[in-house]
Each structure stands twice: as structure tokens, then as C-alpha cells.
Amino acid sequence: MDSKMTRIDGCRLLLDVGGTFIKEVLAYADGNFVPGSEDSVPINSDGTESQIRSSLNLALIHARNFASDEGMQIARVAVAIPGPFNFDEGVFLMKHKFASVFGKRFEDIAEAGILPGAKFSFIHDVNCMLLGEMFRGKGRDYDNVALVALGTGLGFTMCVNREILLSPLKSPAVSIFNRPYGEGILEDYVSKRGFLKIYSMFSGTHDESLTVADIGSMAEAGAEPALKTFSEVGRILSGSIRPLMEEYGIQCLLFGGQISRSFRFMEDSVRQGLRGVSTLREISTVSDISSATFNGLISLP
Asked: Which CATH architecture has domain 10-123+293-298?
């Protein structure tokens, strides 16, 4: 990350709260990241309230101590988190994860008193990633941009006329993960579990310890079942989102999330599936998979 060695009194804490890790970094008021402040804390989104509280507290304490050592105080905390979530009030509304803290305020669970006086703000994680690309990444030159987030689940969001399309709860207005597909929903085929299921079909094996990163490594080595897996997922995904690309006049389609690190193995099938979409000018990964969400958080007003 680019940074500016400027000592100031106030700084911002940026939190990317996922299902298994909390990633964090500090940022100066000028929008540059504080060198050496990046950290991650494990979190079990299926855990008890006490376990979730402990992880959030640890993240805040680490950031507070780092800022203090640098002669700074955290004035604002910007949080990217999955939905459903009340992003105005900071209240957990998820039942598929973070169920043990459903209906509770983030600032109460995280014990915001660890950072006295700090102001908290919240944004949907996939919207946040797109926001970062619109202001600091590959979406800067386009009005209509879509983003697919590939990971444990399947995230999707769009920006039309440079405005991110939001639901009343400020989640993405158009959701694709639960669209009917095959014997279930699209996320059953385009997500971590989808990759594993399709690889099992092509390889004729079933290994519960296998990860999508493993399949990516095998694809890198030229293993046919792995290559076919990425190609098939790309075919399924592109066919499913093509009507949206056409309806909303999408000019730029971006891919983020950890699985997108292996996007090159599915790129050809994605491009083939979207060939002929007249408005589409760019298909690519986000500018920096590691910091895309942080770039969105630093772009928040």
C-alpha cells in the first residue's frame, strides 16, 4: 500500500469484518495508509457472543495501541461487514452468520469504549469493494460497473451512473446468490462449495480437506480436472449475469474476493459467455484484491 509518512494527531481505523477474519489497517486523514498498521484477527462468525466480542475487542485494542505508539488517536472507525445489517444504526441482522449477536449493536459487542470518542460508520462489504474501485481503482473511468465477489459465498453489486444501487437496508439492490440454478441456487455452483462440488465431479474424488486455493494450484500445474472446474464455474456465472450486464448497460465487470486470485483460469469462459454484450468494455479483477475493501472504506465521506 502507498503511504505518506506524515505524523498527525487523528487517524481512521478501517475494519473489514468477514466470517473468519477481521482485517484492519489505520489511515491518515489524507487517505494514505499508516505503514505497518495492517493486521488480522481470527473471528468465528458461528461462535458465541463472547467469542465474537473477544475477537472484535482484540482488533480494536491492537489498533488503539499501535496508534498510541505512533502518537495518534483513532477518531473514526469505518467498518465493512456483510448483510443483512442495519448500516445506519450498526445493528447485526444476519442469521446465516453472527447469529449469536442478532439484533445487537456492533458498538456494544465491540465495546466501543476501547476507542473513546471515536465515531463508527458501516457499509456492506461488497458495496465497499465497488466503492473503492470507483474512486481508487479500475472503475474510475466508467459510469456503469458491476462487481462479483467470489469466496465462501457469492457477492454481487452494481454501480449505475456512478451511483451504487442499494436496497432499503443499504445492501446491494440486485442479489444473485439465491437465484435458482440447477438443483439449488447459483451460490451452490459459484462459491467455495460450488468449486469443490464441481471439482469432485470432474476429478471423481472427494477430499474434505481440499480448498479452492488447492484447486487453483492444481490448475497452475495444468491439471485437467482443476482447469475444467474453473472453466465450468466461469460458464455458469457468465450465463447467469449476462442479462444483468445487458439490462443495466454494464461497461466494466470486476472480480474480487479470495477466489478471484485464480481468475485467470476462468477468464476465457467468462469472456466467452459475455461475448456480444455491446456495452461491456472491460473484464478484470479489482485493482488490488488484498486492499480493495480498505480502498472503499477510505473513500467513505
From this structure: 2-Layer Sandwich (3.30)
Residue 293's φ and ψ, nearest 5 degrees, are -70, -40
What cell was used for 113?
469504549
Secondary structure, 3-state, 116-139: CCCEEEEEEHHHHHHHHHHHHCCC
* Domain boundaries of the chain, sorted by first residue: 10-123+293-298, 138-285
Grid cell at residue 215: 484447486
Give the pLDDT of the chain (301 residues) as one tens digit per residue: 444 444 445 799 999 998 889 999 999 988 899 999 999 999 999 999 999 999 999 999 999 999 999 999 999 999 999 999 999 999 999 988 899 999 999 999 998 889 999 999 999 999 999 999 998 899 999 999 999 999 988 999 999 999 999 999 999 999 999 999 999 999 999 999 999 999 999 999 988 899 999 999 999 999 999 999 999 999 999 999 999 999 999 999 999 999 999 999 999 999 999 999 999 999 999 999 988 899 999 988 7
For 172, the grid coordinates are 446491494
Three-class DSSP category at 193: helix
Q: What are phi and psi of 71, to 5 degrees?
A: 75, 25
Q: Is the dihedral of CA 181, 182, 185, 190 positive or negative?
A: negative
